[in-house]
Description:
The structure is a homotetramer. Chain A has 10 helices and no strands. Chain A is mainly alpha-helical. Chains in contact: A-B, C-D. Chain A binds chain B through residues 18-23, 99, 102-103, 106-109, 139, 141-142, 144-145, 148-149, 151-153, 155-157, 159-160, 173, 176-177, 179-186, 188, and chain B through 18-23, 99, 102-103, 106-109, 139, 141-142, 144-145, 148-149, 151-153, 155-157, 159-160, 173, 176-177, 179-186, 188. Chain A binds a DNA duplex through helix 3.
Amino acid sequence: MTDKRKAILKSALLLFTERGFHGTPTSLIAREAGVATGTLFHYFGTKENLISDLYLEIKREAGKVMSEGTDTGDDTTSGLRRIASNYVSWGIRNPAKIKFMEQFCLSPFVPDETREEGVSNFLFLAGLFEKGITSGEIKPLPVELAIKMAAEFLNGVISYIIRQGPCCDANEIFELAYPVLEDGLRKR
Amino acid sequence: MTDKRKAILKSALLLFTERGFHGTPTSLIAREAGVATGTLFHYFGTKENLISDLYLEIKREAGKVMSEGTDTGDDTTSGLRRIASNYVSWGIRNPAKIKFMEQFCLSPFVPDETREEGVSNFLFLAGLFEKGITSGEIKPLPVELAIKMAAEFLNGVISYIIRQGPCCDANEIFELAYPVLEDGLRKR
Amino acid sequence: MTDKRKAILKSALLLFTERGFHGTPTSLIAREAGVATGTLFHYFGTKENLISDLYLEIKREAGKVMSEGTDTGDDTTSGLRRIASNYVSWGIRNPAKIKFMEQFCLSPFVPDETREEGVSNFLFLAGLFEKGITSGEIKPLPVELAIKMAAEFLNGVISYIIRQGPCCDANEIFELAYPVLEDGLRKR
Amino acid sequence: MTDKRKAILKSALLLFTERGFHGTPTSLIAREAGVATGTLFHYFGTKENLISDLYLEIKREAGKVMSEGTDTGDDTTSGLRRIASNYVSWGIRNPAKIKFMEQFCLSPFVPDETREEGVSNFLFLAGLFEKGITSGEIKPLPVELAIKMAAEFLNGVISYIIRQGPCCDANEIFELAYPVLEDGLRKR
DNA sequence: AATGAATGAGTTTTCATTCAT
DNA sequence: TATGAATGAAAACTCATTCAT
Lengths: 188, 188, 188, 188
């Protein structure tokens, strides 16, 4: 991937989250990226394409980051903890990407087919939850519901940590918050 | 409040959630509301004012709905269950309002002071959580974190139910999902 | 029809013939017409619509001018002379309209359906030629061919007169040129 | 002349007639010609130069084709018939070139000096008409007027034949149409 | 000679807002 | 109060042209 393309995606991420999609002129994205307007359209064709590509890139990264250090042999409880920890730690280091996902996952600016392609990066989670339900580790819930609840929960944690500012101990907060999810999901 | 004012707010809610803030022309809002463009500006002055008023209206309604049937004498566990049930049931009946809150709570279109005023409708939640922590009913967490986690969790449940379509049994899903929150928060 | 609308059509006519369709910015048309750019789009919606409306207006005027002072009882020879004279005299007084028709009748900027609607203003010519062929006044030709030949011929005369400049005697030239058409069409 | 240069001129002819001068990007011309954009500018320098060269090429070809098989000793009547026949037959086989001449002879895209150079290919027609007028074969008309009338007339015939589609008998139509011109010009 | 990525001025079009009625 | 024609600044996007390779 070209340097210019990367620079455009980087500017777009920051500006979209700060000012919204329609609130961010393509001319501004280009200027911040240090390229000409035409270059943006050379690489992405349309503004919609740009946000769509950005969406996919972030979803792919999130999916990849989550699964780092996990193993298909893991039990659900420890696998989930690892994933949650990966995700939160990545989210804290990449607040703009979290904000982007929150704002644009449900927005009308990302075309439906792109959204579907983005979801595909998280299919491994479904497998993990199914295993946990079968083994009796976690409550018998519809898998999609469980994923949704967990995801929103973790986003809440991340956004709380970010709001506290950089001087708080993120780890400490995670250790405080995570048991809520773990205890909540565990079958009793 | 005049009929025309109400009609404008109603159109604005639908259109903003479907097309975004900048993606919705004031002329379209006015047309859908059956009034002239000038009338919109007569009532709201600017487009920013319109979204700001809409935000407050919805936050006020959400706050009011949540606390229905609760009592300051309630213990945290049963109070929280009532609030959660009120909120989810209102959310399912008003999907556009949920979508609006998800999209615009963190967006740059709502001025900060409006956001603060909106949050004031949920202060009673802080009291409830504090009481629960003091009495040992729930885990000792920062109150703001607990609120954030609970709110995101419930939004996740609502959005899952809405996505399932109208033929699913919303109550059944709530009864399945809610224990996750309750068990998660409870001190053990 | 509003004054502003008329002014826009007038500017557009001059500028399109002088600089071509794509060579004429809408901003320039508006400026020359003494209105804001937005006003142009308020009345015509798109630039394509503007040229299409202009085309129809001119075709309608040409058709109306041609048939002035004719009578369904006329024989073809005298009817045709009258029409030709009307057309040439109108063409000399409205060189921009002639130039517009020459440049845009066959151009890709006028949509096909508009072209068809424009042609409808000249259907009365077909009747005249048919009568002349039946009565043996003029050569037995496909009517459409005869119309096409006559039209191109007269355009040639007009453009010659215009090119000679305003000091030439237009009438004299017409009297010199017209017999070529008349003698050419007459059956011998 | 290189193959690439030829290919560019060929694409340009088709695209200019289909989409107009400003409506045809140089990048498209290059792509259709199977060369890089830079190559187009290597051969022609500017887009204006390209259309200008194309104009001259076509005018030169038209002039050459017309005079084929004529002889300075011919009388005007038979010379003219030969020229007309040559022109119509070439026009039918090269509809894009006819369309190009119709659209761009009077357009602002061809610089005046190019237009003058193009006209030089038809000077031999002036000689022919003068001879016919002197000898009393044809009506005493200004030579330029006579040329203009004849040219427009023949263009009308060609465009009629083209519009009829490929299944019509072009020769038959020419034999029907040509006498109109001949009889019209002949002195009586 | 030939390429095509990069440029940025210029284009069509939109839309918040005003104001005379 | 209510209207909607008129405005013009600002947006997305295009494209002739250049130039390093």
